[in-house]
Input
Amino acid sequence: MTTTILDGKRTAELTRNALLDTISQLTQSGHTPGLAVVLVGNDPASRVYVNSKVKACEQLGIYSQKWVLSAETTQTELLDLIHKLNEDPRIHGILVQSPPPSHIDETEVIRHIDPRKDVDGFHPVNVAKLVLDDPSGFVPCTPLGCMELLKTYGIPTVGKHAVVLGRSMIVGKPMASLLVGKESNATVTIAHSRTEGLEEVCRSADILVAAVGKPQLVKASFIKPGAVVIDVGINRVRDASSPRGYRLVGDVDFPNVQPLCSAITPVPGGVGPMTIAMLMSNTVKACRQISGC
Ligand code: NDP
Output
């Protein structure tokens, strides 16, 4: 079977290019989109993510603020900053990099972000809007990126059976809501660690989205021939032959699964690059909605 590789790098570039005109028009009318990224602590991976988000803003002409707070920052101090950013007219999007140190109550912090600036789409108001099919809400960037890939490659979802493997609030649940929503009209099954007959459930999928965080859990035997497979997983596995000592693999056993699929995302270069592109898109949307432009 000929398999289409769903190229996230290229699709993210198309998304960014499409945003440039809107950003330029907004800037000319005095409403430059602005994103504040807040990092608490020194987690090296989080630093990399934060820096790449700020860099993406710079490349597109989005105003950005990077707040790096010490690991000892209290919940009250963090909430004070969030309240300031809520009031700052230069800022349309606020993102607190996850995970914060363990003494910070992340759920509570998210509830303090103005839902109109919640470009991560984690605030309960935006969760509700997603379920309600209300397009004014913000959808978490990773599932939004998966949908953008499906749209860009013209993959039909209407009436298809989609299985979403994973039920996190960041990926699995919003992904399932998008697929079952009025734009996509798929029939959706959500599977998780307590699902019985996981392999069989996955094998019934026309579209399989894997978001479990378990390297190469999805084997060839999980795949219906001709299925579309979206691999959200990003896992480090030891690899002595790599200069870094590890390589990145997804939740899907790509070499063995790929020949069975009609389309599949690679890891890296699939869903990953889409996530930041969707963050930029959400920031522009927030700017337009707040400024009324
Ligand atoms: P979570 O750990 O929050 O959720 C994992 C989900 O997978 C849970 O619902 C869990 O079930 C389920 N699960 C775990 N093991 C199994 C199993 N053996 N069989 C069936 N289900 C299982 O992870 P996230 O949703 O945050 O992330 C998932 C993956 O996506 C990770 O690899 C992460 O790195 C990656 N990711 C990638 C992003 C990107 O930009 N490409 C962004 C965000 C995440 P249960 O609920 O029962 O515990």
Summary: The pocket of NDP is lined by residues 142, 165-168, 170-172, 192-194, 198, 211-214, 217, 232-235, 271-272, 275 (CB under 6 Å).
